[in-house]
Design goal:
heterodimer; A: alpha+beta; Nuclear Transport Factor 2, Chain: A; six-stranded mixed β-sheet; 5 helices; about 30% helix; B: Nuclear Transport Factor 2, Chain: A; 6 helices; disordered N terminus
Chain lengths: ~170, ~300
């Protein structure tokens, strides 16, 4: 199982030259329930100092921010993967890029199927990927996601304002 | 895969806040946190670390002598040290140009052009470098902090797109405006009788349903608090009017009593609003004006 997953991840390397390719590879790796295969996948996709931040918006408007390296993220999410099998569905995507850097914004539905009961939970996120292009392929240098707040569509996260900076 | 959502471009002038006010409202909005970072050396009580999250990082793409891209990663302290080292020989001016801004809840992103000017302290020789800087911000304990910053210098062979500089951005806004005129023209239905008059701007107590701000009360309160705006007459606050149009877009309509700085803040306040549920009268969406009060 681990070998099979690793082979699939390596085969995706050729697709990492495109932004769509690295995003697809990330979702595949994040859906992998085998912890070793998942770690291999993340190692292949993230830069050495790559980081992951999650922002959880609570019902009362307060939040909880967790930040750290992708390695720390893997360590801390072991329990989630033991209880759930995730499935990510990208709903929409926008991006800004110039030469070797790209900021990619995705609205993603995350389905978590509880392994014991097969009950499925759904959450929508705004995911921000900071990508860098090195050695002929993209890497994830930073990833942040925030969950949908009650009453405020997550799609609003993609609305942009273009501002012109004008010093006094 | 890409699903284009509502896209709006709003021109904002004068988002540079007075430094005194910045100190009072330190990092209370993503734009203020961003502004503080780029005016670091004008703020004598700020240091780089205080503007970043605990694990915040700066990633800079540079090119080696063969033109191969290399990644340099700094902690805020290291980045601050670098700036300090450079500033011993040069005056550093980092001037943002055009910002593409997104914000949802406690996360924000500002993808921007930043012109970096280094002026030699001895010879006055000036080095100018345009960069793209993508800033990710998160709100932690009520303060907006930079969580990640990616920097890419302009490559002479591949100039940064024109629209990322002020003149270009104006062109884009004009194009968008024209496109809207053509694509979204609204025509009245023939023989439809109603007392509805699109020219009347109603007061909130004249409509059947007043305008409603979308989302929870907390989101609206947060917005008011961010810009120091209240909805009832309060000593130390100056009144101004906003109009919620039939399409739910908010517009600043009366600012005569406000100072220049208050106007700038009121503009930012209105620009930060989401699309309202418009007021209803005669079973139709109507324009409605709301009186608000901004801190002096």
């Amino acid at each position: 199982m681990f070998l099979l997953s690793t082979c699939q991840l390596v085969a995706q390397d050729t697709n990492l030259r495109s932004i769509g390719g690295i995003l697809d590879a990330y979702f595949t790796a994040a859906e992998t329930t085998d912890s070793l295969a998942r770690a291999t996948g993340f190692q292949n996709l993230f830069t050495e100092n790559g980081s992951i931040t999650s922002v959880v918006m609570n019902y009362d408007g307060t939040n909880r921010v967790r930040e750290g390296s992708w390695q720390t993220y893997l360590e801390k999410t072991g329990q989630y993967y033991r209880r759930f099998t995730p499935d990510f569905v990208e709903i929409s995507r926008e991006m800004e890029y110039y030469l070797e850097i790209a900021s990619v914004h995705c609205i993603v539905a995350q389905y978590s199927k509880q392994n014991m009961t097969s009950k499925q939970y759904k959450e929508e996120h705004w995911m921000q990927f900071d990508l860098v292009y090195l050695n002929e392929r993209w890497y994830i240098d930073n990833l942040l996601w925030i969950n949908e707040m009650p009453g405020v569509q997550i799609q609003n996260a993609l609305i942009t304002d273009t501002l012109i900076y004008s010093p006094e | 895969m890409t699903q284009k959502l509502t896209y709006r471009i709003i021109m904002l002038l004068a988002i540079h806040f007075a430094s005194v006010s910045l100190k009072l409202k330190a990092q209370s909005s993503p734009i203020i946190a961003y502004d503080l970072f780029y005016n670091l050396y004008e703020e004598d009580d700020q240091n780089v670390e205080s503007l970043f999250t605990k694990t915040g990082r700066i990633t800079n793409v540079i090119y080696d002598t063969l033109g191969v891209p290399q990644l340099m990663t700094f902690t805020p302290t290291e980045y601050g040290n670098q700036l300090e080292k450079i500033s011993s020989n040069y005056w550093i001016e980092r001037t943002p140009q055009v910002l593409i801004y997104r914000n949802y809840g406690s996360a924000a992103r500002i993808y921007s052009t930043v012109s970096v000017k280094l002026i030699d302290r001895n010879t006055r020789e000036t080095l100018l470098n345009n960069t793209i800087q993508s800033v990710q911000l998160v709100k932690i304990k009520g303060q907006w902090k930079i969580n990640h910053l990616s920097i890419q210098s302009e490559h002479p062979s591949y100039p940064i797109p024109e629209e990322m500089f002020p003149e270009g951005a104006l062109n884009i806004a004009e194009e968008t405006e024209n496109k809207n005129d053509t694509d979204f023209e609204v025509r009245p239905i023939p023989d439809f009788n109603t007392e509805y008059d699109p020219n009347i701007v109603y007061q909130a107590n004249e409509v059947d349903e007043p305008p409603v701000y979308p989302g929870s009360m907390a989101v609206y309160s947060d917005l008011l608090e961010t810009y120091d705006v209240v909805t009832t007459p309060t000593p130390g606050y100056t009144p101004f009017l906003i109009t919620i149009n039939e399409d739910g877009q908010a517009e600043l309509t009366y600012v005569h009593d406000l100072s220049g700085f208050q106007i700038s803040r009121a503009e930012s306040f209105v620009r930060s609003m989401m699309i309202w549920y418009p007021a209803i009268k005669y079973a139709a969406s109507v324009k409605c004006k709301l009186v608000m009060y901004i801190r002096e």
